[in-house]
Amino acid sequence: xxxxxxxxxxxxxxxxxxxxxxxxxxxxxxxxxxxxxxxxxxxxxxxxxxxxxxxxxxxxxxxxxxxxxxxxxxxxxxxxxxxxxxxxxxxxxxxxxxxxxxxxxxxxxxxxxxxxxxxxxxxxxxxxxxxxxxxxxxxxxxxxxxxxxxxxxxxxxxxxxxxxxxxxxxxxxxxxxxxxxxxxxxxxxxxxxxxxxxxxxxxxxxxxxxxxxxxxxxxxxxxxxxxxxxxxxxxxxxxxxxxxxxxxxxxxxxxxxxxxxxxxxxxxxxxxxxxxxxxxxxxxxxx
Length: 287
Hints:
Blueprint: E1 2-9, E2 14-21, E3 30-33, E4 37-43, H1 49-58, H2 63-73, E5 80-86, E6 90-95, E7 103-107, E8 110-115, H3 121-131, H4 137-150, E9 160-167, E10 178-182, H5 188-214, H6 217-230, H7 240-252, H8 256-269, H9 279-286
Antiparallel strand pairs: 1-2, 1-8, 2-9, 3-4, 4-5, 5-6, 7-8, 9-10
């Protein structure tokens, strides 16, 4: 009653999984670990497979050997469905003989699998969407999950979805874990898509604000114009701090009228912010 994908992007240093189901908290059956790999254990999933998977990867077992270890530790493995991917070891999927309406497909550094599905098109659509997508792994995993959902997904309906990615954390502020987990929602996959879009906007806003704050001279003027353009249709609490940054940058450029307007936008979103303004600025903003 679940469809999922596990995948690696070696060039970006990312590993993760995405999953959706008619079952509550479907995301509990998967995990991903940077430098190792990702696994989902679904259908009548055996969560003991997850720690065993990472233990055997540390011992440098290949995925076929790990699957045989699962067989040895679980008499009910024919009721299970497993997808695995590991750095420099490829991908592997297994579907037990007793799993109903189940399909799987593996490719370069990914595996798609699902059970109690409306049909094989769910998995083929996921695989094609992943292979044809670009960008961060979270976006590619979501593209695959949405394709499976659009193809009909779980024949019992939908309740939960999750996208989880770990990145190499060495390089920048954005190298952090992505974990969007949606429960008891009419459209859990699309809700994750909405949240990912918001995150992309916020990351863009933070970057534009940083550049505008740090730049000088003509470069600052250009950066402020770009930040102002970005915020044009975003009078929302998510972006209130960016309007304050815009106002401060406009003041630094000597554009007092533009700064007052930016402060007014911030206060329109969050009226309590007026109390944080200097008296002179507050009078002009509220006047």
